[in-house]
Each structure stands twice: as C-alpha cells, then as structure tokens.
C-alpha cells in the first residue's frame, strides 16, 4: 500500500477517509510560505539552544524543540489549522473531545540514522488499545522539502490495522516525500519512524499531535505555556491546550469550577458545573468543538 496523496483543496472528510484506509495521508502545499518562514524565524534561536537527543530513539543528531505555543506566536495558527482540527475531530470521534498532545520542531541533522519503527501511542505506557480505536491524530508539517535522502518520515501504510508490537524494519516502510509546506497526517496506531538523513542539510518538520482528551498529554502544556502567556490566548486555543474538561468529571478545578474560568479568574461559586447534571455535561461534551470536553 502507498501513502495517499491529496491536493490542498481536499475536504476534511476526504482526508479522514484516507487515514481510515491507510492510517496516513499527505496533503500537499497547505502551509503558506510566509507563515512557514515566520515560524522558522521565531523558533531559530530556540532550536539552536536545544540539545541533541540523549539516545538512538530521540536521535543523537536530532534537536526536538518544544513549547511552541509560548515560543512562536505564528505556530499557533498552525496548531489551530481548521483542516487539521476537523480531521482530528473525525479521527478521534470515539472520544468526547480532544486536546493538544505535543508541539515539537524536529530538526534531524546530517548523518542521523533511521529511527526505530514504532507507534506513537506507545507513549501511553504501551497500553494495548483495541484495534480500530484511535486515540491520536498526528501531523508533521514539512518546513522544507522532505526527500528520501534528507530523512523523510518513513511509514508502513495500513499498519494501523495490524497487531501491536510488530518488529518492522526500514525495508518495510515507504518515505513520505513531500514539498515544503505540505502536511503529513497519521494515526497514533500507525507504525512509522524518521528516515536516515544522508544529506548535508538539516531536515525540519513541525510535529503537532492531538489526542483524546481523557489521556494525559505528552507535553505538559500548563507548564510549557506560562500562565501569563496563556491568559493572553484566545479561548478556543486554551481549550485545545487542555483548559477544558476532558470528559465527564475529568479536569475540573477545586469546587468543580471550569478550568478556563479558574485560569482567567472569572466566576465564583455559581461557575461550578454540577457533576450530577449528567445529561447537560454529556451534551456539551459531545459538541465536538475544537479540543472540547465538557467545558
């Protein structure tokens, strides 16, 4: 099976259908050049200061710069891209909502060998999720051309339907080559890994991942985004960061306050949502707002 490739005029329904079939898809030339340049410029000093990885999995010639919502205002536009949010809503429809799982600029340096093939959902303590129950919708935005030579992400299309713990090798994969500004989407159950960078240039990809809101986030957004920065952000982005209930009775603050009210210092005792009012909470939790749980 090959990686489905779609034009940037594709609907979220078409992209989600490709993910259901292959577990992955490339949508070409989605990110405007000016936005891509702004993100790179804002993150360049942070990337220079980021140490290389401590082991072969993270990459000893790879820098993984996180905290992007706080460090790069322009990256917030990419995090909130409407096509991605609507695809994530479809892929993660088993959950009552989803949130931002991690933000990383992955810079793979020359000479980096291929990453071991893995599933991203193994981050959840290797829990064996039922086959077909997706808990992550992942994206990698090409900040430059992705080629087989410079380490384009390697995928095993269709492997989201395979059993857990399989020992795939690089020879079992195909590269997600794509021009700058393109978007790779794949599920948390898809076997994949970064390719070997045999070029003389660094390959940069913007990795933004969304997960079911009842699961712990890989990147701690509440500390990655300082509270004073968070209070300046729009409420739909704050909900995506996790300032929302993750599901019925998950994530409220002290006396059952909405976490967004607690962050913004608004409301009092009357701002509490009664946990006994199940019908109201579930109704709000299935509204499928970006990142929404029961707010």
Could you explain how this protein is built, in words?
By secondary structure, the chain is an alpha+beta fold. The protein has one domain: q2cbj1_9rhob like domain (Jelly Rolls). Helix content is 26%, strand content 17%. It has 10 helices and 10 strands. It has helices at 12-22, 33-49, 68-71, 75-79, 82-91, 221-224, 227-230, 235-241, 259-264, 278-285; strands at 5-6, 24-27, 62-65, 98-108, 136-142, 154-155, 174-175, 183-187, 192-193, 203-212. A 7-stranded mixed β-sheet has the order 1-2-8-5-10-4-3. Strands 7-6-9 form a 3-stranded antiparallel β-sheet, with no helix packed on it. β1, α1 (12-22) and β2 (24-27) form a beta-alpha-beta unit. α1 crosses α5 (82-91). It is globular.
The count of domains is: 1
Give the N-to-C terminal Cα separation: 41 Å
- Flag low-confidence runs: 275-295
CATH-level-4 superfamily name: q2cbj1_9rhob like domain
Mean pLDDT: 92
CATH topology: Jelly Rolls
Structure classification: alpha+beta
Helix residue percentage: 25-40%
Proportion of residues in extended strands: 15-25%
- Counted by DSSP, the helix tally is 10
Looking at this protein, list some descriptive labels:
17% strand, 10 helices, alpha+beta, three-stranded antiparallel beta sheet, 10 strands, disordered C terminus, Jelly Rolls, single chain, 295 residues, seven-stranded mixed beta sheet
């Amino acid at each position: 099976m090959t990686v489905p490739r779609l034009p940037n005029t594709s609907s979220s329904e078409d992209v989600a259908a490709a993910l259901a079939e292959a577990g992955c898809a490339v949508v070409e030339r989605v990110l405007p050049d000016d936005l891509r340049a702004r993100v790179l410029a804002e993150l360049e000093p942070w990337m220079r200061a980021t140490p290389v990885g401590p082991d072969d999995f993270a990459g000893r010639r790879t820098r993984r710069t996180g905290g992007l919502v706080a460090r790069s205002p322009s990256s917030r536009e990419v995090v909130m891209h409407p096509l991605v949010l609507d695809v994530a809503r479809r892929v993660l429809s088993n959950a009552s909502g989803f949130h931002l799982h991690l933000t990383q600029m992955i810079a793979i340096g020359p000479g980096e060998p291929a990453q071991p093939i893995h599933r991203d959902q193994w981050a959840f303590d290797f829990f064996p999720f039922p086959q077909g129950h997706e808990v992550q919708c992942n994206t990698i935005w090409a900040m430059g051309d992705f080629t087989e030579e410079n380490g384009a992400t390697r995928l095993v299309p269709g492997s989201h339907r395979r059993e857990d713990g399989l020992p795939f090798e690089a020879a079992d994969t195909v590269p997600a080559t794509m021009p700058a500004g393109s978007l790779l989407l794949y599920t948390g159950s898809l076997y994949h890994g970064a390719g070997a960078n045999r070029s003389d240039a660094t390959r940069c990809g913007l990795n933004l991942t969304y997960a079911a809101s009842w699961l712990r986030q890989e990147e701690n957004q509440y500390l990655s985004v300082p509270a004073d920065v968070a209070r300046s952000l729009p409420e739909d982005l704050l909900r995506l960061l996790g300032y929302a209930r993750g599901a019925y009775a998950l994530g409220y603050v002290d006396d059952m306050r909405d976490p967004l009210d607690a962050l913004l210092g608004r409301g009092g005792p009357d701002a509490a949502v009664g946990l006994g009012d199940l019908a109201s909470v579930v109704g709000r939790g299935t509204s499928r707002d970006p990142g929404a749980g029961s707010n």
